[in-house]
Design goal:
Blueprint lengths: L1 H5 L5 H7 L10 E2 L16 E3 L5 E3 L4 H15 L16
Antiparallel strand pairs: 1-3, 2-3
Length: 92
């Protein structure tokens, strides 16, 4: 979804990365994958490079993924659950 939103041409990734409310210790999006999991280089393997060159972390719970998508919607001016509907599954 971050990849799709980045294609809007509105500097979405820069604006998303600038939001101060990422995880307690981790960034959801960074220019370098080492910046995603500070102090935990072993977790850098849980990342994906977007076409733009930015890196996104992939080691997140469903609750965190929902928070990331809500944050992305806020940055993009969309309504989570209305403009963007995501089936995240269950924790069963």
């Amino acid at each position: 979804m971050l990849e799709r939103l980045s294609e809007t041409g509105t500097h979405f990734l820069e604006r998303f990365a600038a939001v101060p409310k990422h995880g307690r210790n981790r960034r959801y999006l960074a220019r370098a994958k080492e910046d995603l999991y500070p102090g935990r280089p072993d977790l850098a393997q849980y990342s994906h490079q977007l076409k733009s060159g930015w890196w996104v972390g992939t080691n997140y719970s469903r609750a965190s993924i929902k928070k990331i998508l809500e944050m992305a919607c806020e940055v993009a001016g969309l309504r989570f659950g209305t403009d963007l509907v995501a089936e995240l599954g269950t924790d069963e």
